[in-house]
Request: fold
Amino acid sequence: MRTASDNFWFHGIPPLESGAALFGEHEADVAIIGGGFTGIAAAYFIKQRFPEKRVIVLESEFVGYGSSGRNSGGVTGLLGHSCLHMKKKLGIEKTTRLLQFTFQSVSLVEELIKKHDIDCDYERAGRLVIAEGERQVRHLEEQAKASEEVGAKTLWLEKEEARSRFGGVNVLAALYLPDEGVINPVKFLRGMKRAAESIGVEVYEHSRCTHIEPGPMMSLYTSLGSVRARDIVMATNAYSNPLGLLKYKVLPFYIYQITTEPLTQGQLDEFHCKGQQNVFVAKNLYWAARFTADNRLMFVECDTLFFYDIECDYSHRPSEYRSHYRLMIEKFPFLKGIKVTHQWGGRIGITLDFLPSVGRTGKHNNVYYSMGYNGNGLGFGQLAGKMLAALMAGENSELTNNMLINKPMLGIPSASATYLASHGLKFYYKTRDRLLEM
Reply:
């Protein structure tokens, strides 16, 4: 499959061994649709709380195939567009409370890696947000002030210190977020799958759920089998699901990225980069770069694309790779002629308020869900799994009493309206970015 050959995260790891497909009729206590970060985490934490329950995961392709294996490997507790955006939308008090909760995501990922000895190239390297122009500096100063007001740990870097951390471009200032990490998401997800299976979770791959019959007992159907379960978890995020849950509320946008061959020592010296840290430019539709554990440059241009037919797969787009390469060489001319070894794309689930929703719904109150991560699903997906397990247990705690639980989500009523609105939103952000570059 293209994902396994062109996606860098599958490079240098043992050949993929897909699990068995669901075959025949099954009874389960909990059936989970989606074998990505949320689905596997939910299965793991639910089984931990209820070891007597039979927990089944249905993955349409193989674990790591979808968005969970196609991202840049950034682990963050930050939700929303930015602290500045969240503060404007929610106010200081609500944003502070929410971030205090969601920043647990990074520690939770680290805890799971340590507990299960998952080899996934993890490093708490932080995120560096850089300004290349004076207007970007002022915009970054606003972000720094908002971060301080809501209690997010940041460090302001003046020109010389900023360039000592990343000198590949003309950096005028930077904002450093130390409590973020980088990871190989496929290695991590495979490790979590093994951890879930070790406590009795059953993961069936190549088992797309095509139809669900609601009721006190839900019936889920695949091409080769079926599952009857009292409770189901919808962990599909940017992908469609058989219930049509949150359709036109979680919008599937595509992001593409490229990875180079390993850099020479001379090329690495040009960057003055410390560790694998993620580097973002201070724009709405940003470009981002990070180094892998074997010293390759991974480059992303966040010119997100939305397509009218949301059921089709647009994860391979050569024109986007060429555009990425041109911008990468424009930013880092000393890389001219370097070879790109991997190039791929994937979906992210965007919501209109840039926040996810985690909850419980359905006529019989037996449908659980977590969706709408806006590109921040690697860390939050683990916390969401824990939240879903707590909801299922009827727990009264911070996991079940926060503003994300059953949070109403705004939607757009049709495919046509969604297409027009998404392109209108992109035009708005591009206009704002042009102003930042003036």
The mean pLDDT is 91. The radius of gyration is 21 Å.
